[in-house]
Design a protein that fits this description.
By secondary structure, this protein is α+β, with helices and mostly antiparallel strands. It has a single domain, classed as Fumarylacetoacetase-like, C-terminal domain (Fumarylacetoacetate hydrolase, domain 2). It has four helices and 13 strands. The strands form three sheets. A six-stranded mixed β-sheet has the order 2-1-10-4-5-7, with helices on one face. A four-stranded antiparallel β-sheet has the order 9-8-12-13, with no helix packed on it. Strand 12 and strand 13 form a beta hairpin. It is globular, with a radius of gyration of 16 Å.
Length: 203
């Protein structure tokens, strides 16, 4: 499986990091070794002093597809989830300043939290899904899939022009505003509509 991530897909998040609004989706990848194992804590890596949480709606691909037209994209997934794209912000900033790829900042071991997945049929409208992140009981991020610059079906179509999508692939669809630093002993809880999709601790 592969993890395909979308950056800069929410206007307010673009603004909070003072990034330029893209004309096409920003795409990067994480290897399967980035997946945080179930029931394991997230361990802050030694190479960063500024790890940020980024909560995101996830889509799990259910059949092979290439050059998928937007009107057919809904046929390529039947589960929606929630996760975290952990980011070494200090490392990322250095990479950006030098025009280098982001992998060291985005694709390190344990940087991808995959919460529970739920049948797409449980959601009334894929483009109106509420989600949020709690840190130590306080809401730090909240968003709605309707706020995406590129909606889920558009992302699937776009990504499939470059990469063949395979069964089990995961797409991270971007994060809303409110990203911030984690510290040891933090507890992070992801809420998808009214469901607790994940709960992790930081070490």
């Amino acid at each position: 499986m592969k993890i395909i991530c979308i950056g800069r897909n929410y206007t307010e998040h673009i603004n909070e990091l003072a990034n330029e609004k893209p004309t096409d989706p920003v795409v990067f990848m994480k290897p399967d070794s980035a997946i945080l194992l179930k029931n394991f804590p997230f361990v802050i890596p030694a190479f960063s002093d500024d790890i940020h949480y980024e909560v995101e709606v996830l889509v799990k691909i259910n059949k092979v597809g290439k050059h998928i037209e937007p009107q057919f994209a809904h046929k390529y997934y039947d589960e929606i989830g929630l996760g975290i794209d952990f980011t070494a912000r200090d490392v990322q900033q250095k990479c950006k300043e030098k025009g280098l790829p982001w992998e060291k900042a985005k694709a390190f071991d344990g940087s991808a939290v995959l919460g529970e997945f739920y049948p797409k049929s449980e959601f009334k409208d894929i483009n109106n899904i509420h989600f949020s992140l709690l840190k130590n009981g306080q809401m730090v991020q909240k968003g709605n899939s309707g706020e995406m610059l590129w909606k889920i079906d558009e992302l699937i179509s776009y990504v499939s022009q470059f990469f063949t999508l395979k069964i089990g692939d995961i797409i991270f669809t971007g994060t809303p505003a409110g990203v911030g630093k984690v510290a040891s002993k933090d507890e992070l809880i992801g809420i998808l509509e009214d469901k607790e999709a994940f709960r992790i601790v930081v070490k």
